[in-house]
Design goal:
The protein is mainly α. Helices cover 69% and strands 0% of the residues. The protein starts with a helix and ends in a 10-residue tail after the last helix.
């Protein structure tokens, strides 16, 4: 059919992905997805997630389902693939754990009353810094996003802004500058440079 032929032309893999497209569509069709949606997810993951071709058919299908549904939340398949690369390469996660981490970001955004695409965009911007936390990177981001929400910071940039405030706390002079900024943001003298 036309969808499979288009995917074969784009990936150069012939009909290898036909079963993945059909199964992912069957499993996500209750969410108003189409065969075209799942084929586009296969194509997007093929081009953005380095480990995609090494996966079993069932693992590919699972990732395609997740990417297709995330696309419905406004998170592009390419972004999903980039985060999968980050989780598996820099944080050392397995592919199922990386998929779970991607889904947890969406759940976190919904729980905070924030658009998932906005929160994942902040996560994407912070990936180089989060890699310093190794396997705790996702948890560090989640805690930062929750704290930003509790502090009433902007929903579009709050987690990123709060994370950025902590940069430069390695020496006293830069810590004192940051403390002044933090206290201005908080509206009072809550933080002391000597405590940092």
């Amino acid at each position: 059919d036309e969808i499979t032929a288009g995917l074969a032309a784009s990936t150069g893999q012939g009909r290898d992905f036909a079963g993945v497209v059909e199964q992912a569509f069957t499993n996500t069709s209750d969410f108003a997805t189409t065969l075209e949606d799942t084929a586009e997810s296969v194509d997007g993951l093929f081009h953005s997630f380095v480990g995609f071709m090494d996966l079993s058919e069932s693992a590919k299908t699972s990732l395609v389902e997740s990417a297709t549904l995330m696309d419905k939340f406004g998170i592009s398949v390419e972004e999903t693939g980039e985060r999968l690369n980050f989780f598996t390469t820099f944080l050392g996660m397995s592919v199922p754990a990386a998929d779970k981490a991607n889904k947890s970001l969406v759940r976190l955004a919904v729980g905070l009353g924030q658009g998932p695409s906005s929160l994942t965009a902040q996560f994407n911007e912070l990936m180089p810094k989060l890699s310093l936390f190794k396997d705790g990177g996702v948890e560090a981001f989640e805690k930062t996003a929750i704290a930003a929400r509790q502090m009433g910071l902007s929903m579009k940039t709050g987690a990123k802004d709060l994370f950025s405030l902590t940069e430069g706390l390695q020496d006293f002079e830069s810590a004192a500058d940051k403390v002044a900024t933090i206290n201005i943001v908080l509206g009072d003298s809550y933080v002391n440079a000597f405590d940092l």
